[in-house]
Amino acid sequence: MTKSGQKKVSIRTRILMMVLLLIVVVFLVIFVVFNLLAGEYIKSSVREQLQTALDVRTDERPIRALPDQRPPQFIPDIRLPREPIGRGEGIIVSDRYELLFPDSTIIFPQRYEEVEAFVSELEAKQADLEKQDIMPLKVLERDYYYISVPINGTIFDKDAFLVYFIDMTSLAAFSNRINVVLLMVMGIAGILAAVCAVFISGKIAQPIRELTHFALRIGEGDFRRNEADYGDQELSELARSMNRAAEQLDTYDREQKAFFQNASHELRTPLQSIKCSAEGIEHGILDAKKASQVISSETDRLSELVEDLLYLSRMDSLTTIKMEEWDLRDILSNCAERQMSLGVERGLQFVFDFPPEPVNMACDENHLSRAFSNLIANAIRYANHTIILSCGTIDDQIVVTVKDDGQGIAESDLPHIFDRFYKGRDGKHGIGLSIVKSVVEQHGGQIEARNTATGAVFHVTF
């Protein structure tokens, strides 16, 4: 159950419901449209056949005077088909719904009964015979359409109406049979769609279950790749993405384990020295002054190591940095000034190769100062006489270099100097340059180290 109380449904159920709903909607539309068209066709067919009743002509012709010498009357020439009711048929009724024509002597008794039933239904419905509209009428479970036309002045001594009607039962029955067929087709299509939906949803749900199990394995620390090959493009892309995530997590996990192992090793060395010196003082086997100097030195080293470890951890978890506009010339010169005394103590000279115009860049000044300070401290450790600091713009890129005139970096060390806890010749604890790399990458830059004829150079590009 979700927070809103809505019950979760499976993909199979959802696909099945959607397919069945689609089939029902489509067939309902077809059913409604077919019946509308069939009804319209019946009405147009009836209208076309019954319209002739409106065109009845009274082709007047005189007849002989009757023996009682009444004035001559005129008999209209009225077409009165004597065909079966299945097609068109005409009858004459009075305004009181009396059947005037035909009588039982003209048509078969069974047909006469059907005609009488038709007239009786007209009377029961109190049909408006003067309306001259095509109207439906159901008689003895049969469907009729009729139209009535007044025919006054005939041989009949009362007001009379010609009622022309047509039986459309067979066409209506055909339409009903088509509806039954449509319903049967809808049922068969629904069954087939359900089978297809179950099959398709199974093909989709099974890979999803496998990928879900794969995700659970990753969460439990099992980073083995999912070797399954899925035919669907989306599932295949999802599997590749999860494999890449597993690979990255595996790499990160191994790096973290190596990090803690190296950190514990680096921390153990100064702690061991501090412990030995303290025990030497306690038992009087070491000179207290010298042992105290060792303790102080190792404590400083330990504090620096812990600070670097904490800083490196913060950089790994840092998602955003505070960006402000700074002149890199100022940042570099400030970093050099803070370590100038150590450089002078080692007899080193700083050379600043800066352009006259500002080298502005959006950056986090604190983090970038830490990175540049580490590069300068590394140069002080290995330089013989001179450290050259330069910055400028080349081809729309900001380039910062720190160069020393020392012996350079061993070729075997070059590929690894930015790795955590990798210590080259005369290295301290192997964290300083990894911090530099993290800061530079946080600012979207790149760093590389190489040897020149006169020493090592670190090249930073933003």
Descriptive overview:
α4 (233-283) packs antiparallel against α5 and α8 (365-382) packs antiparallel against α9. A hairpin with a 2-residue loop joins β3 and β4. Mean pLDDT is 78; it is low at 56-86. The protein has helices at 11-50, 109-125, 169-219, 233-283, 288-317, 328-338, 340-345, 365-382, 432-442, and strands spanning 88-94, 99-101, 135-139, 142-150, 160-167, 324-327, 349-353, 360-363, 386-394, 397-404, 446-452, 455-461. The longest helix has 51 residues, at 169-219. 19% of the residues are buried. By secondary structure, the chain is α+β, with helices and mostly antiparallel strands. The chain has 9 helices and 12 strands.
Sheet with the most strands: spatial strand order: 2-1-5-4-3
Residue share in helix = 40-55%
Strand fraction equals 15-25%
Calculate the terminal CA-CA distance, rounded to whole Å. Answer: 51 Å
For the biggest sheet, the summary is: 5 strands, antiparallel
Question: How would you name the oligomeric state of the polypeptide chains in this document?
Answer: single chain
Mean pLDDT: 78
Helix/strand order: HEEHEEEHHHEHHEEHEEHEE
Low-confidence stretches: 56-86
What is the global morphology? rod-shaped
Strand elements, count: 12
